[in-house]
Amino acid sequence: MSGRPHADAQHRPKSVIAGVLFHVLGGNGLADEGGVFLPLTPWAWTLLVVGPVALLWRRACPVTVFAIAAAASIGFATFAEPSWVYAVAPAVALFQIARNGRLTAAVVSGGAAYAAYLLICGFFADRLGLDPGVRPGLREALLLAVGMVLMVFLGSASKSRAEHMAEIMKVRAERARAREEQEKRQASEERLRIARELHDVLGHHLSLINVQAGVGLHLMERQPEQAREALTAIKTASAEALREVRAVLGVLRTEDEAAPRQPALGLSRLEDLTADAGLPVETKVTGDPRDLPPEVDRAAYRIVQEALTNVRRHAGPGAAARVNVDYLPTTLHLGIRNDGTDASPPGAPAEGHAGTGIAGMRARAESLGGQLEAGPVDGGYLVSVLLPTPKEEC
To answer: Which residues form a coiled coil (predicted)?
Structure first.
């Protein structure tokens, strides 16, 4: 009995101490009342103590421990009147057998110990020369049988309860893992959203700043007034970029910080977007304008912004663009067309560097269940987007 039995001894001393106290104090009290018919010799004390001490290993070897405890208690019962005070250890051991899920072993072990007690201290008491006071009466025999059945029942019930609690803990652990995975997934999606927002914001405004800076440098000497207008546009674009970056990063603010005060980005700000695009933009809205789901409204704004940024980057000087916004019954259609002479696609590789404009717009549309098509058309380039807008969400 090593390994796990020793662990039992370290973690389950209370039942051993209680068993020893019940047996020793109860046996001593029984002797003081004349219920013990032999002197309490070291052998008698050993019989009282051996059962409780054996409980140290009741989890690892419950049947063996019950046999030892029952034999010691029956041995003491051969010179003492029937009493529960020296039967605590076998009762605990029988409970443990049932709690371990060994119901048959508990019934067989309990029945064998019960029969042995009745045979030794009842039927064969005279032949063994035992004191008549050790004989159990009908009342004692019935109480002992009820007590043993109760121990088996309580052990089985304790096992069922332990299994139920283990199942509850397992379900809670699975829910906690699922919640943790969901939080990680949401955090990953939020990082991706922020990355897309920052790409759109910085790409649009920095591209505009770059164009206006080039114009300013070109006109600085010959047409200073137009250069001043270019610098003013740079200042406006940079201020707008800072505001939008703050709005994008607003989700990272702490709870006690104020929320961004600027209005949410959406098609309601389309006029401002096209006015600051850095190239001529014609806007046409068809259908009945309506309130869109916030995520669709923001995605539509960002797609138009990215498309205009790519037009400015790739269409060449003198480029112009047309933006069509069609409010259909259950969808929103966006069409951004480049009428420049350079038909290289927005977001395509430029100057040896691979762009991400088309891929980013397509990913944004598909994340909402929409679709995006892009390609050359009539010497220019067309980006066509469909975003679902169910009526019940509007």
So the answer is: 161-198
pTM above 0.85, yes or no: no
Q: Is residue 383 part of a domain?
A: yes
Give the H/E segment covering residue 381: strand 380-388
Q: How many CB atoms lie within 10 A of CB 70?
A: 24
Domain span at residue 84 reads 4-136
Asked, for residue 379, whether it belongs to a domain, the answer is yes
Report how far residue 302's alpha carbon sits from residue 365's, in angstroms, rounded to the nearest whole number: 10
Alpha helices, H only, the chain: 4-11, 13-32, 42-54, 62-77, 88-99, 103-118, 138-219, 224-248, 270-275, 294-314, 357-367
CA distance 300 to 353: 26
Specify the DSSP class assigned to residue 394. -
Mean pLDDT by 10 residues, the chain (394 residues): 45 78 87 87 91 89 92 92 91 92 91 92 88 90 92 90 89 89 81 73 67 66 68 70 65 50 74 81 90 88 86 75 92 87 45 57 88 87 90 48
Classify residue 260: in a domain, yes or no: no
Q: Does residue 87 lie in a domain region? A: yes
176 CB burial (10 A radius; 0-12, 13-18, 19+): exposed
First to last CA, the chain: 73
Burial (CB count <10 Å: 0-12, 13-18, 19+), residue 69 = buried
